[in-house]
Design goal:
Blueprint (H helix, E strand, L loop, with lengths): L11 H11 L4 E5 L5 E5 H17 L7 E5 L4 H12 L3 E4 L6 H10 L4 E4 L4 H7 L7 E4 L16 E4 H6 L15 E6 L9 E5 H11 L12 E4 L11 H8 L2 E4 L6 H10 L4 E4 L1 H14 L8 E4 L6 H11 L2 E7 L6 E4 L4 H4 L3 H8 L3 E3 L3 E6 L14 E7 L21 E9 L4 E7 L4 E3 L2 E3 L1 H9 L4 E11 L3 E10 L7 H6 L13 E4 L13 H8 L2 H4 L3
Parallel strand pairs: 1-11, 3-4, 3-5, 4-8, 5-6, 6-7, 10-11, 10-12, 12-13, 13-14, 24-25
Antiparallel strand pairs: 1-2, 8-9, 14-15, 15-16, 16-20, 17-18, 18-19, 19-20, 21-22, 23-24
Helix pairs in contact: 1-2, 1-8, 2-3, 7-8, 9-10
This protein binds adenosine monophosphate.
Adenosine monophosphate binds next to strand 14, strand 19 and strand 20.
Length: about 550
């Protein structure tokens, strides 16, 4: 017997129509490519998203067609999020920080038909366009800012605002099967070719509802959230859906992501919440310390995408009275999987024990099932010691990649292997100890690169640190520390290594320290371990070790 409840499909368009009706004047503020501040609200976004759906129809976009974007966080990108998915097409956010060959590969792999593009990427598009089968490129700007670029014959160059000016807004959002594809986002592809993750209307809405729970992002109508995490990387962690669903104001930084620009925007627009990767917060922290400025209204920052170093938690909480929320997720998990929110027993912790707990990535959020397993697939205990392959399943976890057979990315019980190595403690709190390919296997024993990096980052003279496995004649692999010293500081090998005293077993100590001016980063702001591994793999063996 079925329940007697309405079976209304979960549609992405419902979020923006809800926000337009219930929070029509909630602000959507964008710093544009041109450097101005653009102001609208959810009523305005919903109206223009309907106009955009008409534009897409005129461009011949139909059901499940892929519409690509190369965009910063801003109001037009938000209109595309709703307009494209809302009319039944698939919004394919492309990461502009990838190299031209990867971008071309991704656009062709997805068989995108039209590309919406920020004027900052005009040159890039001119380069890649001849290698693609795009029918049109729409510049996300007003007519007066149209760049003078040449596209191949048969590929139209169009202007977003010109198209919008001619569009009527009488469009009515359709309802269809909630399992239909809504968005496509490719993984960063640091090993091999990028792979597409295809989100559905259902998975997107369930994820938005889940992250709005009080012990996750818990956004409220009184919040003003600035997603620094880009809309081209896992849908800005779902914030463009969660914020309108909560009625929270959205503040978009555009391409202005340096510490000074973020501080100004956060203070001018009274931002209360923000979210991004550690690299961004490092830039912000350095700016605040150097300038003496404060963030007057920010209460909480979500940090994820890479491990949040302890010194970052200490600095933001201790010096700036801002709560740090450590979260874990991945493109394949929409992305939120875990969130470190207090429990009665952890709330009472203080000092070292509290910091140790906050460094962990958190508990599985409701809707995510999580386990750690050994290489034979057997579940390991939740004792905070056993390390295993982290597996997840849930309604917003991928079951296959774009172009592959359904369910081909998970086992028969639905578990998706994340490629992360983790422990889970008695409270259910998960800690990532490594990417499976980054873990250092010294004499058959595992050494956690993340633990060693976090300790190095706590050194006052270290700006950024990475640990990689270097080949070793006796131990197979040994940890090698690569550090960027803070400008104007004298950092010595012995000085850095001294920071590890009494913090890790002595056999975990890095075998050498390399000082560099900067570390390579991936297109999503993570340290590019593969580049470092290739560069330094023979560092120790060359020295006869
Ligand atoms: P992406 O799909 O590009 O978002 O990358 C996902 C990967 O980033 C995960 O599988 C983890 O290896 C890493 N990651 C995400 N969040 C964290 C975190 N809080 N701590 C450590 N690693 C993280």
């Amino acid at each position: 017997m079925f329940g007697l409840m309405q079976d209304r499909p979960l549609m992405i368009s419902q979020i923006i129509t809800y926000a337009a009706r219930n929070h029509p004047r909630a602000a959507v503020i964008s710093k544009t490519v041109e450097g101005d501040i653009h102001r609208t609200d959810y009523a305005g976004i919903e109206r223009r998203a309907r106009g955009l759906a008409r534009v897409l129809q005129r461009l011949g976009i139909g059901d499940a067609d892929r519409v690509a974007t190369l965009g910063w966080n801003g109001f037009r990108h938000l209109e595309l999020y709703y307009g494209v998915s809302g009319m039944g097409a698939i919004c394919h956010t492309v990461n502009p920080r990838l190299g031209a060959p990867d971008i071309t590969f991704i656009i062709n792999d997805a068989a995108d038909s039209v590309l919406f593009c920020e004027t900052s990427f005009a040159g890039l598009v001119e380069t890649i366009a001849p290698e693609t089968k795009l029918r049109a490129v729409v510049m996300m700007c007003a007519p007066e800012h149209m760049p003078a670029i040449t596209l191949p014959p048969g590929m139209d160059l169009l202007c977003y605002e010109t198209l919008m000016a001619a569009a009527d807004e009488t469009y009515a959002w359709p309802e269809f099967d909630e399992r239909k594809a809504a968005l496509l986002c490719y993984t960063s592809g640091t090993t091999g070719k990028p792979k597409g993750v295809l989100y559905s209307h259902r998975s997107t809405i369930l994820h938005a509802m889940a992250i709005n729970a009080a012990d996750v992002f818990g956004l409220r109508a009184t919040d003003r959230i600035l997603p620094v995490v880009p809309m081209f990387h896992v849908n800005a962690w779902g914030i463009p859906y969660a914020a309108p669903a909560a009625g929270a104001a959205l503040i978009f930084p555009g391409r202005h992501l340096d510490g000074a620009s973020l501080t100004k925007l956060m203070n001018d627009e009274k931002v209360t919440r923000s979210a991004g990767v550690p690299t961004i917060w490092l830039g912000l922290l350095n700016h605040l310390r150097a300038s003496g400025e404060r963030l007057h209204t920010v209460k909480r920052l979500v940090i994820g995408g890479s491990a949040c170093p302890r010194m970052m938690i200490e600095a933001f909480e201790g010096e700036y009275n801002i709560q740090i929320d450590h979260a874990w997720g991945m493109t394949e998990t929409s992305p939120l999987g875990t969130f470190n929110a207090p429990l009665p027993e952890t709330d009472a912790l203080s000092g070292e024990a509290r910091l140790r707990h906050l460094e962990k990535q958190g508990r599985g959020i409701f809707g995510i099932d999580m386990k750690i397993a050994n290489d034979a697939g057997e579940s390991l205990p939740w004792d905070g010691v056993a390390q295993g392959n982290l597996m997840v399943r849930g309604a917003w976890v991928a079951n296959a990649y774009w172009g592959q057979e359904p369910d081909s990315a998970c086992d028969t019980a639905g578990w998706f292997a994340t490629g992360d190595v983790a422990t889970i403690d008695e409270t259910g709190t998960m800690e990532i100890t490594d990417r499976s390919k980054d873990v250092i296997k010294s004499g058959g024993e595992w050494i956690s690169s993340i633990t060693l990096e976090n300790i190095a980052m706590s050194h006052p003279d270290v700006l950024e640190a990475a640990i990689v496995a270097a080949s070793h004649s006796k131990w197979a692999e040994r940890p090698l520390l690569i550090v960027v010293p803070r400008p104007d500081r004298e950092l010595t090998r012995e000085g850095v290594l001294a920071i590890y005293k009494d913090k890790v077993p002595t056999w975990w100590l890095p075998d050498d320290v390399v000082m560099v001016d900067e570390l390579p980063h991936t297109a999503t702001g993570k340290i590019h371990k593969l580049t470092l591994r290739n560069r330094y793999r023979e560092h120790l063996t060359r020295a006869g070790r």
